[in-house]
Amino acid sequence: MTMQITPVSADYVEMRFGPRWTYISCVRKFVASFFMIGLADKERAEQVSMAASELLENAVKYASEEEGYLKITIAKGQSEVDVCVKNKAEPHHINTLRRELALIHAGQPEQVYLRKMEEAAMTEGQSRLGLIRIIYEANARLRLEVNDGEVSIHAIFPLEQM
Amino acid sequence: MNSSSQIAPLYAEGLNIVPSIDDGVMRIKMSGTVEMRDPGDLLTPYWNKIDEKALERSLRRVEVDLRDLSFMNSSGILTLVRWITKVKTHTAPKSYQLVLQYDRNVTWQRTSIPTLAKLAPAVVVSTEING
Questions:
Q1: What is the DSSP letter of A64?
Q2: Is the ipTM of this complex over 0.85?
């Protein structure tokens, strides 16, 4: 038997778990601790863990019920940290996510954040503030990939801004 | 006169909120985290109660000390947005100033709290308090 080992950077975490809300806090705290060591930067570690938490909250809310897991990978490269959350999602949720990303990329982060807060205050239901919060609070950029009903959303933190 | 018994503290799911009223000012101390799935179910009625009490007692200021709140998810932030939206609609003499006290060493507080104050700069103030 041969064992295949995929090379990963030293600062790399991958977790796969059932979409249960109660795990999110646990993952957030772990990610914060892990990257506090890996990045030696409390602020960046808190931003990365906040992004992980917000993306996981969305994934748990919108994950397809037929698929019993979601996956989070966080990798520190030479010039960026990439937080990626993957889950299966229904087509209408994927479309909502695409629209949401287009909207939040269409303006200055602070203006978009304020506008979305005002809109959210006037409507019932989910806040939909998580994605813009990641962009505004953490200076991250977001990227969406969809492949055969599987959604991957990346929050990318450039390290040169640190 | 301290009348903290007027509004009961809230202890739930890792979150503690302790209000007190003294000399025309209500002080609300928050600690722990807000990361439950639907914080609005818990917090919106509580903030409404605070708002009603502040108007009933003709308080001039409500101070919310967030410094010991280590994390708040975006749904929790939305509960503060809803409160601010309500405060904005009050008119003198039935109105009060909402002061959000934060610690700049806590990353989420330093970025989100001053932004919240921009929603209603005439009635909401964010104040940095360290230590």
A1: -
A2: yes
DSSP per residue, B62-109: EEEEEEEEEEE-HHHHHHHHHHHHHHHH--TTS--EEEEEE-TTSHHH
Q: Is B43 on the interface with A (CB under 8 A)?
A: no
Q: Write down the residue that tokens 């809109």 correspond to.
A: A119
* Annotated domain spans of chain A: 12-121+128-161
* Average pLDDT value for residue range A65-80: 77
Crossing angle (nearest 10°) for helices A109-122 and B74-89? 70
CA distance A6 to chain B (A): 34
pLDDT in tens, B93-106: 889 999 999 999 99
A134–B contact, CB cutoff 8 A: no
Distance from CA of A11 to the nearest CA of B (A): 22
Residues lower than pLDDT 70 in chain B: 1-5, 131
CB contacts, 8 Å: B115 with chain A = 110, 113-114, 136
pTM summary value: 0.91
Q: Is residue A3 less than 8 Å (CB to CB) from chain B?
A: no
User: Does the domain made of B4-128 have the CATH classification 3.30.750.24?
Assistant: yes
Of B33, B37, B111, the CB nearest to A136: B111
* pLDDT reported for residue A162: 43
**Beta carbons of A130 and B73 less than 8 Å apart:** yes
Domain A12-121+128-161 coded CATH 3.40.50.1110: no
